[in-house]
Specification:
Citrate Synthase, domain 1, binds carboxymethyl coenzyme *A, globular
């Protein structure tokens, strides 16, 4: 009998490829996109420039960025059949299911759909970055009874997103905050959704199929769905003074606290640190709901860090603080995970394009631990 191989459950600790797109340093709590630290990018760059950076692995010149922004703006409008599906489903279906179906449908009207050369995949990436934001905004707008608001090509990507979502020109401050949220979520190495997109692409399927796979993977509460789950928990807690009792009971009952813990970070997630700064500003918010959620989030974070942060390496991740920030921007909970997808799409596309340059079918092994040569008993004798 051959010895059982060592099995890496959840592929933990397994390297499957090389890439210069993203470095997650989970020991020191550092994150870099193409060599630039996340703090540098959050302080100086913006989501559109970061999309260019991830797809090209270098920052654009002013004229390159201008052309890139115009390309994004020109691709925003959605095909009629996609708008119809959103109008039919947005009020009655899970928003990630709407997004997954709408992205799949985009392939039917994309003239490059069947062309998987790199220039074609780059063009499709720009369309997907642009149109996924429109799908998410349209879903929110239709659900709120405003219908499909056509994009405004004179606006930047995030300003237009908020415009399509709310039907009115957003405040500059809101655009800036949401831009930072998009930038912080844009890329994260071989996370589950990026990996599933690469697995699909590695069969030489196509970009829309790969991104559809990634969206399905992002949906789960262990991944992109954690931000919704964290806000739901804050709502259940209700008041800041109930936080300690709630968290203590949850931990005693071995319940996971969503928005904490990470496969790679064994210290504070640097993205969470940046979002926490915004929360500290929101403590003084005039809106009672936002102030309340913010104080619950900060109380929960303090307790968790004291109780299991240092001892168990379970720290806040990017999803923990998003809820109060999005609530302050007037964004409903059901759009949190779709917004994560609209933010992560440049990372998905960049990795898919890069992996295809030296493609190798991804096909791991599983160790068979069943019996062999079982006797087949006819159905009437079982
Ligand atoms: N609250 C309480 N305990 C936790 C938590 C948590 N959030 N996360 C992990 N643990 C415990 C877990 O119960 C286990 O304990 P024990 O060894 O006693 O059974 C131990 O820590 C290891 O957990 P694991 O789930 O086996 O470890 P993992 O590397 O597979 O987990 C994780 C990573 C993100 C799935 C997990 O930390 C988790 O479920 N967190 C909550 C969901 C979440 O916030 N997900 C978003 C991740 S970051 C954004 C993204 O990439 O999408």
């Amino acid at each position: 009998m051959v010895d059982a191989p060592e099995i890496k459950h959840g592929l933990e600790g397994v390297y499957f490829t090389e890439s210069g797109i993203c470095k997650v340093d989970g020991i020191n709590g550092r994150l870099y996109y193409c060599g630039y630290s996340i703090e540098t990018l959050a302080g100086n760059s913006n989501f559109e420039e970061v999309c260019y950076l991830l797809l090209n692995e270098r920052l654009p010149s002013a004229s390159e960025l201008s052309v890139f922004r115009k390309s994004l703006a020109s691709e925003r409008d959605l095909p009629d059949e996609v708008v119809m599906v959103i109008e039919k489903l947005a009020k009655s279906s899970d928003e990630m299911d709407v997004l997954r179906s709408a992205v799949s449908m985009l392939a039917f009207s994309d003239k490059d759909a069947a062309d998987d050369t790199e220039p074609s995949n780059m063009r499709k990436s720009i369309r997907l970055i642009s149109k996924i934001a429109s799908i998410v905004a349209a879903t929110g707008s239709v659900r709120a009874g405003r219908g499909y608001v056509r994009p405004d090509p004179s606006m930047g990507h995030i300003e237009n997103f908020l415009y399509m979502l709310n039907g009115s020109k957003p405040k500059d401050e809101h655009v800036k905050i949401l831009d930072t949220m998009f930038l912080l979520h844009a890329e994260h190495s071989s996370n589950a959704s990026t990996f599933s997109g690469i697995v699909t692409a590695s069969t030489l399927s196509d970009m829309h199929s790969a991104v559809t796979s990634a969206i399905g993977t992002l949906k789960g509460p262990l991944h992109g769905g954690a931000d919704e789950a964290a806000l739901q928990m804050m709502r259940e807690i209700g008041r800041p003074e109930h936080t300690v009792k709630y968290i203590e009971e949850a931990l005693a009952g071995k319940k996971k606290i969503m928005g904490f813990g990470h496969r790679v970070y064994k210290t504070y997630d640097p993205r969470a640190r940046i979002i926490k700064k915004r929360l500290e500003e929101l403590q003084g918010s005039a809106d009672e709901e936002v102030r309340n959620l913010t104080n619950i989030a900060l109380a929960a974070e303090k307790l968790m860090v004291d109780r299991i942060g240092k001892s168990h390496g379970i720290w806040p991740n990017v999803d923990f603080f998003s809820g109060p920030v999005y609530t302050d921007l007037g964004i409903d909970i059901y759009l949190f995970t779709p917004i994560f997808a609209a933010s992560r799409i440049p990372g998905w596309c960049a990795h898919i394009i890069q992996y295809l340059r030296e493609n190798k079918l991804i096909r791991p092994l599983e160790y068979y631990n069943g019996t062999l040569d079982r006797e087949y008993v006819p159905i009437d004798k079982r």
